[in-house]
Amino acid sequence: MQEHQDHMQWKVLSSTYLYRDNWFTARRDRCETPSGKIVDPYYVLEYPNWVNALAFTEDEQVILIRQYRHALGKTILELPGGVVDDTDASPLAAVERELREETGYTFQQIEPLCHISPNPSTQSNLCFAFLATGGKKTHPQSLDPNEEIEVVLVSKTELRELIMKNEIWQALHVTTLLYGLLRTGDLQWATHQLSEKQLR
User: Which residues belong to any copy of the Nudix hydrolase domain (predicted)?
Assistant: First the structure.
């Protein structure tokens, strides 16, 4: 598989940064394909890596957060998560910090689920997804100045309803839910319910 990937790799001939800020950097690349075709311009958006987690309390409640998302113009339910800071030793350290800051919970166990590309055609970053279990409220929230986050606890049944009603809008979080519920063995209900809907 790697041999085929290397065979298709583009060569970057030059890069020009168009804009740089804390959370957003845009660059223009001039590239050459293996067949010799010049691709110019090709725009790449550089973001920091991100983390999120499907998190459960000690009594198996799912920890969600509700916050306003300005680009969408809506207040939505999401999984806890955020940016991997330069001071974080690893994505695991980042998700531990984000969970504590956004929810006030710490966890008995946090395990990796997957890492995915938010948009491989234009973005250079990765998103690391985790499963956190055994959560206990140990701290008050510690939010950034522009953050207003409400912690929402739901049962597994309520989470199922949210998913089936298309009320989890953040695509990366839907992916985390897929891998997380596969890991916990709680995805069979979805297959069953979808099959029932198809039969109606």
Answer: 46-176
**Token digits of residue 90:** 């690893």
Number of C-beta neighbours around residue 56 at 10 A: 23
50-184 homologous superfamily: Nucleoside Triphosphate Pyrophosphohydrolase (3.90.79.10)
Exposure b/e, 72-111, CB count within 10 A at least 16 = b: eeeebbbbbbbbbeeebeebbebbbbbbbbbbbbbbeebe
Angstrom distances, CA of residue 163 to CA of 3, 39, 188, 190 = 39, 40, 13, 9
**Domain parsing of the chain, residue ranges:** 11-46, 50-184
pTM of structure: 0.89
Q: What angle do CA 111, 113, 116 make, to 5 degrees?
A: 135
Respond yes or no on whether the N-terminal peptide bond of residue 48 is cis (omega within 30° of 0). no
Residues whose CB is less than 8 angstroms from the CB of residue 196 and which lie 6 or more positions away in sequence, other chains included: none
Encode the chain (200 residues) as per-residue pLDDT tens digits: 555 567 899 999 999 999 998 888 999 999 999 999 999 999 999 999 999 999 999 999 999 999 999 999 999 999 999 999 999 999 999 999 999 999 999 999 999 999 999 999 999 999 999 999 999 999 999 998 888 999 999 999 999 999 999 999 999 999 999 999 999 998 876 555 555 554 45
